[in-house]
Design a protein that fits this description.
989 residues, alpha/beta, five-stranded mixed β-sheet, 23 strands
């Protein structure tokens, strides 16, 4: 017996995973299943794998719907039919057009129309009418009963039991954003789709045996025999696999001479070793395609960072895919490409956020749109989203929804409705919700991608697979990750600004020189790293100071131990302690002391797990990496994993280790492997950190402008403005005669960009800049209004931010003038006039307008003051007893300090209580950090942005001081002096 099924990949409709669908079908006695998810193929390969595992025949297809209307179902007879269905669906998805009433003439697909169609006329040989169990009674009185050869049974199971039906109803209500009570069959609500036992289903169709036999014939024709083991990526880069091998060898040898010189024996041996494995596993084309992408981007002058496990490869280093030297860092190639690991490798290549799409465009055009796609992802239902979605289904008002999300366990949130929400929320957790895009995955296939998936067209406007990275890996795809980040944008723009402002050309890729530069070393050691990629957060700056970090290897370690898993485990604290007291280290075994010498006997990287398993337990590197992956939950075979665990212990017994030592080493390895971080990742981050740090050290003004313009740092814009001022810049408010859309620099003068002015339209900004660059500076407000023709609301904003200060007129005067000009359109006629009317002059009474008033305008329109500091706005003249630079001198003492709140980090204690860490700036623009423990935080909470007076005890950890806050409160600002500072055109009309 066989049946049609929906899985939960029929989004917001189905209620069972593909594995649950198959397991339920086997339990109910079915021998074959036809998966026909609605308008997608996301579950096809997990479904086929599950069917094979449980010995049931898989048949695949697609149920095509237009909105809620069922149009027809396509059932693939083989892989060619599956591709036909994918091509058909992809065509309409990519054009974003509605599906047609009838499909095209398929060759290897059976098409089943719904019984409601009501006629068998004009049906092709491969077309049928499907009859659901609840439609059998209607069939007795329908003319369709006279065409038994064109009828097939079509039971479609969507849920298992009444609870599944209830979940199905909730999903349909969520999909339509309506109340449960508003659901009707028109919302594609299926009230008759519960799994029936196979014998019961057969009995219900006994009156029409031809329906059963017709479906049996169809299933007998269908054969979906998919090869999961073969690689699906593009096979060749050049003409043949041998040519690929020779080309990769040539490029690697060329790069070897450039990177290491002709006489570096270790590098040469390593390259030969890697090339052998690459060729043996058939990955030459994958390396060459990645090289080709890098070559293109470098030819365009794009900056890139090659990171991830690919940085373990010396060949990748020689091909300039990455700037991490694996020999310098003792990185194992097997961490990247492992002969004993089934999962494929991937390269992670970071580009600047504004250049990534150009690289993707090249890849699609170079390798063809039929063979190239972005990798999809599946966004799942998670706690907060579940509560909100289900809350709306039950009609909860927004205030109650907010309270429920904020504190689900609160007594006020325990009632009959929330009980239902929690019940179905638990069932919905991790359910697929919407299809989305992987952060950077790109697929380049040998066969057209429609052989494996239908394609979507998300907002990226590039074809995207309907399944995710886990399915891609399971069927033999190696993705290429083309990622973007703003840190690279900082570096790229800073280099450009230095050349523009100082006429100096910098090569930001001279990382080897940066690592040994003494000024850069001191800058790193001081923790003065605001704006620098990955090392600017309060926690990271504190760690740099605690470690006295002044070299590359220490920075690589810091980049790893700052990770949440390592820090939470206590490894970070142990590392710092051992760094300061190396003489007190007691190694559990000499092998660990030798292999973990660089990290003071602490496992910091994933590679450390490999070292211990290899050198202590005698596993080869390939087995060690398989074991590591198994401990981190990435192993697909528990049996294979257990064999390696047994081998670990048996090898140790053969080496004569005491059982207690073996078990303790295993405990450490097992506990660490789950949250460890790749050393290659850390090294890649550290390389980029050094690039940023070099630029900040020698070109701080240009660097801060670049950070401001890329909007991607850890802090808000005003913090970087303060840093630029501290470095000697003169900060200017936006000006129509000097500012560009983004912030710009002229020698020591930095003009904030028009983009920072709140409510100023982007189109107006571009018009202002373009007109000025083409026709010259504006000579007056009237000249500006005539040339730009922007609205009075936009002019008002510019006047209030003092963008016309070149006129020498007050804001009030300019507002009157704007009113006169914009109130008399004839005065602004852009066409030439015979006689130019004289400009009207105003005589206004003297009005008080102070710097405080000006700063309030800046706060409103920029989000931060420029003409005054936050401290200047305070009502009090008090500035605290202690400054940040002197905190260490007051260790153990209670002091009062004053600071602008920069950022906070919220955590929970072991008891579940809330505590926070704060970062502040003092009057000298120096940072200091606070710890706000639960008792203090409860009585003296943070109250948003502003200047705080803090009372607390100074503590120091490894020489890094901070304050344990006892009390704190936000201080009041001075008020505006008079209504004139709020003057708007509407007020003076």
């Amino acid at each position: 017996m066989m049946a049609f099924v929906h899985s939960y990949y029929s989004l917001r409709y189905g209620t069972l995973s593909v594995e649950e669908v198959v397991a339920t079908a086997v339990k109910q006695g079915y021998k074959a299943l036809i998966l026909t998810d609605i308008n997608n193929t996301s579950g096809v390969f997990p479904f086929v794998a599950a069917c094979r595992e449980l010995g049931i025949q898989p048949v695949v297809g697609i149920e095509f719907r237009r909105d809620n209307q069922l149009l027809y179902t396509g059932v693939a007879l083989n892989q060619a039919g599956f591709q036909e269905l994918n091509i058909f669906l992809s065509h309409y998805q990519l054009l974003q057009e509605a599906l047609p009433d009838k499909p095209p003439a398929f060759n290897q697909v059976m098409v089943i129309y719904p019984f409601a169609l009501g006629t068998s006329q004009a049906l092709q040989e491969n077309e049928y009418i499907g009859v659901r169990p609840h439609e059998l009674n209607k069939l007795q009185f329908s003319n369709l009963r006279h065409y038994p050869d064109k009828l097939v049974m079509q039971p479609v199971f969507t849920y298992e039991n009444p609870e599944g039906y209830a979940l199905h109803r909730h999903l349909r209500a969520i999909d339509h954003n309506i109340l449960l009570s508003q659901l009707t069959p028109e919302h594609a609500l299926n009230e008759d789709a519960a799994f029936l036992p196979a014998n019961q289903l057969r009995k219900s169709y006994e009156r029409f045996p031809s329906l059963i036999s017709n479906l049996e014939k169809l299933v007998a024709q269908a054969s979906f025999t998919f090869d999961f083991s073969s690689r699906k990526n593009k096979f060749l880069f050049s003409a043949t696999a041998y040519d690929d091998k020779l080309l990769l060898e040539k490029l690697a040898q060329d790069g070897l001479r450039q990177r290491y010189g002709a006489t570096h024996k270790v590098a040469r041996q390593r390259v030969e070793h890697e090339l052998t494995i690459i060729d043996k596993l058939g990955f030459s084309a994958y390396f060459l395609i990645t090289w080709d992408v890098i070559r293109y981007s470098m030819s365009r002058g794009f900056y890139h960072i090659g990171r991830g496990s690919g940085a373990n490869s010396v060949v990748a280093y020689c091909l300039r895919i990455t700037d991490v030297d694996p020999i310098e860092l003792d990185l194992y190639f097997e961490r990247f490409l492992n002969p004993k690991r089934t999962s494929p490798p991937d390269f992670d290549i970071d580009y600047s956020w504004d250049e990534r799409d150009e690289v993707l465009d090249y890849i699609f055009k170079r390798y063809g749109r039929e063979h190239t796609a972005l990798l999809g992802a599946m966004s799942t239902f998670q706690q907060n989203a579940i509560l909100r979605e289900l809350g709306k289904v039950y009609g909860l008002p927004k205030s109650e929804l907010d309270a429920l999300v904020a504190n689900p366990a609160a007594g006020a949130n325990q009632n009959q409705y929330t009980q239902q929400i929690f019940r179905y929320g638990k069932l919905l957790t991790d359910f697929p919700n919407v299809r989305s895009i992987h952060a950077g995955g790109v697929l380049i296939s040998e066969q057209p991608l429609t052989c494996y998936t239908a394609l979507d067209l998300p907002p990226k406007n590039m074809p995207t697979s309907q399944w995710d990275m886990y399915v891609a890996e399971s069927i033999g795809f190696e993705k290429l990750d083309i990622l973007s980040q703003r840190g690279i944008g900082h570096i790229k723009e800073c280099v450009h600004l230095v050349q523009q402002n100082q006429k100096l050309k910098i090569d930001a890729h001279e990382v080897a020189r940066f690592k040994t530069d003494e000024k850069v070393r001191q800058q790193l050691k001081s923790g003065d790293t605001i704006g620098c990629f990955y090392i600017e957060s309060p926690a990271m700056r504190g760690l740099l100071k605690k470690l006295h970090c002044d070299n590359y290897l220490s920075l690589v370690a810091a980049s790893s131990i700052i990770r949440p898993g390592v820090a939470k485990s206590g490894m970070m604290k142990a590392y710092i302690q051992r760094f300061h007291h190396p003489d007190k280290i007691e190694h559990i075994h000499p092998v660990l002391g030798e292999q973990l010498k660089e990290t003071y006997g602490v496992m910091v990287y994933q590679e450390d797990v490999l070292k211990v398993c290899h050198h202590f337990a005698g596993l080869d590197l390939a087995d060690a990496d398989v074991l590591r992956r198994g401990m981190s939950g990435k192993s697909r075979s528990k049996q294979e994993f257990q064999k390696l665990v047994d081998k670990f212990f048996s090898n140790c017994r053969e080496k004569g280790y005491p059982e207690a030592i073996t078990r303790e080493v295993w405990r450490q390895v097992e506990s660490f492997a789950g949250y460890s971080f790749s050393k290659a990742h850390s090294a890649s981050f550290a390389v980029e950190s050094y690039q940023s740090l070099f630029l900040k050290t020698y070109y701080p003004l240009e660097f801060m402008v670049a950070v401001i313009n890329n909007f991607g740092g850890f802090y808000q814009t005003w913090v970087y403005v303060q840093e630029a001022r501290k470095a000697g810049a003169m900060i200017h408010l936006p000006c129509v005669n000097h500012s560009l859309f983004t912030t710009t620099i002229y020698q020591q003068d930095i003009y904030l960009g028009l983009v920072h002015i709140q409510n100023l339209e982007q189109q107006a900004c571009q018009r202002i800049v373009t007109e000025r660059l083409q026709q010259g500076h504006y000579t007056s407000l009237e000249d500006f209004i005539k040339r730009t023709q922007i609205t009075k609301e936009q002019v008002e904003i510019l006047i209030r931010i003092d963008a016309f200060r070149f006129t020498g007129q007050s804001k009030v005067h300019l507002l009157w003038e704007a009113l006169y000009l914009l109130g008399h359109k004839s005065n602004l006629d852009a066409e030439a006039v015979l006689f130019q009317a004289p400009q009207k002059h105003f005589h206004l009474p003297s009005l008080t307008y102070t710097l405080v008033d000006k700063a309030w305008d800046e706060l409103e329109l920029l989000g931060f003051p420029v003409s005054l500091s936050y401290f200047d706005l305070l009502k009090t003249k008090y500035r605290g007893d202690v400054l940040a630079a002197a905190m260490a001198q007051y260790t153990g003492r209670k002091v009062r300090m004053l600071g602008i709140l920069v950022t906070t980090k919220q955590v929970r204690t072991i008891r579940g209580e809330l505590m926070q860490f704060g970062t502040f700036l003092d009057t000298q623009n120096n940072f200091f950090d606070t710890v706000n423990f639960p008792p203090s935080l409860k009585d003296w909470p943070f109250k948003g942005p502003g200047v705080y007076l803090l009372l607390g005890k100074i503590t120091a950890e490894f020489g890094f001081p901070s304050m344990e806050v006892e009390k704190m409160d936000k201080l009041p600002f001075q008020e505006k002096h008079q209504p004139a500072t709020n003057l708007k055109l509407a007020d003076i009309t």
